[in-house]
Amino acid sequence: MAPLTSAQRQRYARQIRLDGFGAAGQEALTDAHVLVIGAGGLGAPVLTYLAAAGVGRLSIVDPDVVELSNLHRQFIHSETGVGRRKVDSARDRLAELNSSIEIVTHPVLLTVDNALDLVGGADVVVDGSDNFATRYLANDACEILGVPLVWGTILGFDGQVAVFDARRGATLRDLYPVVPAPGSVPDCATAGVIGALCGSIGAAMAMETIKLLAGIGTPLHDAVSIYDSLTATWETVPVGRNPRRPAVADLHSHLGDYGEGAGEQGTAACPTSTDETPTVTWAQFPGGVDLIDIREPAEVSAGMVPGAEHLPMDELLEHPEAIAGRSVALYCRSGVRSARACAALRARGFDVSSVSGGYLAYLSRL
């Protein structure tokens, strides 16, 4: 571990003065590599605070582009960045904040094929993703490689934060043993989110990361901390390792759990189709099927798949006759809304499928 330079001592002076942190804590941050999954609502505060704190290498994984509707909470981006890759927009902002750190961008989905390579070089992984498939894939890759995972999630006015480390205790699979079915839990585009809540949860995630790297305090191992923003209260709930749960040793043994986040892995990585939500990947996309983008107009303004027809989800469900007699495939941002819409329409007799991974999986192909 290299000693701090005079410039680093000046930049991080307020941190170095902290009792229990000191130069040793700063040197640990400067020497560290953190992989952050997602440059959105949670990734924005996490990346900003870690870059400002002097984490020496930040790797960002996100295939998405900046949309106008992101800006109320994703303050790492700006109006001039609408339509740009989020990883590029974030990289440029972080470079302005701290030009002395290394920023590596990966404009891709986290997939079964790349997860171990991406996670393997990190000291800590921070999961700021917004879908269950990616969360479980990140969790499992970290368990296999023995890398601590800082996890957070938000919905509505509430948020949760935890530190998962299979080497010493519980993981996401102990907190939530059953992976929710695609579309069963609304995403932020459907349920909404307050921008300031993202800041609260993201800042807590950044602090847990700093604690792990610097060896200070008591990280949130074997517990989940739950924040209710409307009452400004935190509650910490213990989470124990299930002794009967087999350790995750191979990602390919859990492919069905990664359907939404596995993206373009071919048929083997597709979630198990059901009569309610049959799925296809972009690589498998069949001929003779009409492609319909069910995202909101604000989302589509940043780009859509060429040749697709735009029909917002609410409008489609209210007027399904628009697809009568047609074989169609629906896509949204990550596959959550399209799976829900697909189930509703098939129950009414329409020939509909859902594109796994949605627009994010499409962007990963570019």
Automatic annotation (TrEMBL):
Keyword terms of this UniProt record: ATP-binding, Nucleotide-binding, Nucleotidyltransferase, Transferase
GO molecular function: ATP binding; nucleotidyltransferase activity; thiosulfate-cyanide sulfurtransferase activity; URM1 activating enzyme activity
Signal peptide per UniProt: none
Cellular component aspect of the GO annotation: cytoplasm
Residue span, Rhodanese domain: 285-364
PROSITE patterns: RHODANESE_3
Record bears the keyword Nucleus: no
Keyword Transport listed: no
Name this polypeptide is given: Adenylyltransferase/sulfurtransferase
Species name: Brevibacterium celere
